[in-house]
Amino acid sequence: MEVDSDSGSRRLALIRAVRTLDEDKTIASPDKIQRIWDLLSATKNTKLHAVEENILRWLFKHMSGTTEDAEHVRRYPLTWTVLSHIFPKIPSQTLGRSLASLRFVSVLRKTVGDITTARKRPSDSPVQTHGAETERTKKRKRDNEFPSDIGELRTPQGCIKSATAVFAALDSLFNQGDRRAAPDGPERRVGAEHIKSLFSSSSEETRDIAAGLLLTCDRSLSVLESGISRYQKSWIGTIAALWNLRPHNKEDSIEFARHMCVPACSILSRLRGILDDAPVMVSSSTVKDRWVRQLEQLLGTYLIRPIRHAFATTGNVDVLKTALEVTKRNLGGSAIVMWDVAARTPRDSNDPKSKAEHSSWTRNAFQTFLGAIQSLEAPFLNQVVTQILDIAIQADSIPDTATLRALCGSHALVPGGTRWDLIAQITACDPDVFLMEHTLMEIVFDRISSASSQDLATRETIVTKIILPLEDAYAKARNLSGFIKKWYDLLCETPRDSLDQMIWFDSRIRDRVAGLLQGALTSTQLLRMLESLESLDDDSGARLIVLDGICAGITEEEFIRIADPVVFSKVFERKTYDHLSSPILSLRWRIAGRMTSWETSSEVDRLRAELKPTLHRILKKGALEDPETLEAFACYHKLWLTNHSGGKHEADLAKRTCSFVERITSEMKAKKDMSTLKPYVDYVFRYLPRLTELPVQESNNLRDLIVDLFWHVGQQFRVEGDIHHGDLLRLLLHNFDCEDEESLIDALILQPLDAVDRAEAKSGWTQPKSLSLLSILLEFPQGAFTKGRRKRIMSSWKKWRSAITDRASKDPQFVEVVLRLLIRVMQLPTFYEGMEFDDLVYLSCYMVEPNKTVLSLIERLIDLTLRQMVSSADGPSQTYLSDAFNFVKTLEPTESVYPVPLMLIAKGLVSAFDNSASSKAHSSTISLDETAQKLAQMVHTNLSTFASETELLGKNQQDESSLLLFSLTLNGANCVTEARNGKPIKLSDDTITPLEQMSASYVASGTDIGWKLRGFLLRNCPSRYHVAALLKQLEESFRVADEDLVCNLVDAFVKTNDQTTKGQLLNELTNTAKLTAGPIGPVLAVKRLVKRHADPKAAVSVGSNQDALDLATVHHRLASLLSQAESTRHFKYLTDTLLLLLDKHASSMTQFNIETTLSSVVHVCSQKGPKIQTTKAAGEIYDRLHKLVALVLKRHRLRLRGHFPILLAALGALLTALLADPGSSATLQAQSPPWLVSRLQARHAERFSRLLTLICEPSAASVARARSSELDSATDAAKRAAGQDMFTTVELYIKLQLQTTVPRDVRKALEPGFYSVLDVTPQGCRRVLNESLDASGRAVFRSIFADYKKFGKWSGV
Question: Which of 212, 315, 438, 1311 has the largest count of CB atoms under 10 Å?
Fold first, then answer.
């Protein structure tokens, strides 16, 4: 009653204040509005609205004049804030009539005119008092954010604040017009029409309002320091709604061009950073994307599409010319923006004439834009043309060939230079521009030849974006031979001494010719082309370049038969090339190498005889820096391959090859530059190992040479230095030919192994180059480490362990490499000479570093070694384990703690015995219980010490060694608990309390060890932690990055509590915890509890029934929370839990749960869905919803009998969300869910299509019944049942296509699903579907059904 009394008194105070508004003339209007606002915002809503109407009349009375006071009221932001507050309180029908009588649109037009007229406030301008006393005004201090001074309101910042309030008021008004007083009730419809009529009654006023507001949007980008923000999200949508309410006529597009085009293009060009301008700063990228999308739709709907429609009927684009003329102040940016929209305007793919119409429209629009921008200055013009062509390529709206040819002549091939980027774009648009104009092609080719001295980037552009696409175009035109001849002519025109510097020498040109040759030429055409090359007398090397490309592309027998004799006669037969440069000469040996794979043995002998003198000279004396030497070596290797094995020249070829490999090794020993030798080493390691297979002398010699070369490359290998040497070693060791050749692997590993295990007094482990030796050993495959080698490595380590430890103390990287090698060795059982437990102790004591990686490596090595011993039952293992047991028994703390090495050994021993099936064989030697008890004692001692030194440990939170010991102690505690079957480690209260404080401190600082400590306390002190304590801890999981930490915490609690407590925890989490936002712990705990609940029928426990685990209720609660999720992470875990319940606990789910699942899908896809607006939210949420519906169809199909309407509702919601286009002003998009910030893609359409096939083509398992007649197929019955209802989904799909544009890839992805629906739909239902559609819908259905009969219907073949 007190509350009602207080509310009534406030309402009464508001009524009195409104009645006395005009009584005191000394109070300024802003002060009166402020007072009204204070009272109005404190008053509760009632069904009475008379006082709101009085406020409305008073405000418009003081806004409608032309005086400065009226302007002040119009500009004052709080005026419009009051209006936005009272609009919803007045019924829409009454509100519409009142606003019409108060001339709302005229006042709004004046207001927009005011806020688009900004001026700077003079520094000495007095504050407006409106007749009030100066002293009184000065004493009054405002604590609100609305400026009230007229001078401040006239500034640009003041205008934007006023505009913000105006937009809010308009949003409130439009929402009032759309409010549902009753479902499709007359009051709502009449009220909405009243409000719409305010703006549709005067086209001119509404036009000026929309234009002024759009101009304000443009200015806000400059005025607001942070750019657009989330408060401006609806601005463009409001403007679009205003423009849409105008009475439309055939002059709409010209009106839009004159009044809306300039600010719209300006905003888009600034937001997108067109013409190298940096995009304006924005505080919300989501709002920016929404503005860009809505403005493009606005331009497309009201400017470009009407122009295109007029062009299709009359053939003129006068309105487009007008739009370009009015935007001449920003002509470049406006032209790019409008062309982008025009080029991307989709055509009707179902209309066969639309392609020609689109081509005609593109040609004329492009010419119009190109003609309009000719007045721009040259550099700026070039940028605009470049971006326009980029858009044309991306949108696949290519201008006609004649236009592009003229563009090339006027802008690209200018007398003062060549714009290669523009030529590249023209080539990408249409290569026929050059192919169909011989003169233009000649000019381009000549300029390419003269561009060889250009910078590297320009040369790259010319080759990749001009020459290579032109090659493809020639091949597509079946005239590749024409390109090759022209290429050859251009090479012949080049001076001999600079031929290898020309662009035409680029290897990619030859590679592309090779790739196209056999597909673009017939054997006859190839013969004619080779004959034409043969008839020309050339000694410049051009023929070698062209023939290299041709020969690289010949693989078919027919082409080889034609090319081989011609190439041999023109390249090798009595030919000398002493005058050519090395890069050109190298092509001769490449051609020869390819010919060796073409020819018979006798023809190869002929080729070898022709090449032998020159080849021998090059291999013996040729400079290794010359490309010719490398290619000659490769040619010689290929000649050996043709004679391998058993060829009559094999011995000589092998001898020469081995001699050259010896030369490479000698050069490397002489410390020659490795960059020169790398190509040779790469070739040897890549191709020569296959020649070492046969047990002949030459193969053995080559094997020894490869091993020697490998060793010397390894000498230069540094882990911390050049990684290329390591790549060379891996190239050989991972070579398929090398891996299968055991003798080669044995020879390769022998030298580094000998270097490590030296017999001299010095240790090979600690020499200056030992790090590279050990790294080389690590590169060998596991199979190379035979039993003997493993024993040798471990024995060597034992022998030199003291020196190794000394080196390790100075080099952390050395420690890691040594440990990795020992782990590699011990991965297989290795019992080396003198093996004893002391080795493990020594290793853990002297190799441990305060480094997490090193600690994990040592832990792994200890685990491998001890598991090996436990799994063996022979005498040495018994002795080893006995020593280990005795060692652990005698362990004593150092400075009141057990250090890391001792903890590692004790933990490793307990873990090895606990996890081994062979541990019983050693029961006489070692007692697991005693060892576990000792480890428990060690853990207890360490934790007690940590607890007593809480302050010291807290100060050293960044001390890695302390954290590592603490973490290892907690791991040891978990190991003890597992070994003792869950028996806890008893701690005193004096120890537990500090540990709890430490865990809270670590969790607050974001250190993961805090969560491990909490898990330990839950596992070992269960009596201290009840459900409330765990819930409190879960609420602190804001900064958890590793989900396993929370899962381990839940596991620790579950293992130490009974079923009743588990049920209580789950009920508390689902009833009281915040599962939709905030910390991730509670929702993750729910998922973990459901996953651990193995027996869904285990609801009966010791406790009462209310504590039982009722999974059906849990499912219902979680499903109801889906639409409230505030992050994708929470939504993911909620859906994961629902999927677990529906799948793993299907027998616990009731009919109500299935319907709740489908209803939650509908709710998520509605306007009340999750308000998650991150970049990838739409796709992730849709995928999760698809999984829910798919699982219902797979696991609970039988529950849908007689309940198909709820399934159809879910499918309809998913389909509507799939086809919705966010930001559009259409009715369909206005109903889209909040999380749909970006349009869904074709992959999501594939998922929806899969749902349809699951329904219409069910698996036998999903529809199997306990009892069924042998004469009745369950799948057929399910198909018949689906056919009676699923046609409504097709009906919805057709209606949605009429409301929005569906991308082609989405339609293609949906086809299989809807074809399966039509498969099961009987003829009667198809007739009903056809009759339920209007004329447009029936046309769409005819198209779909025709495609179905052609492509989708099974024909029985």
Answer: 212
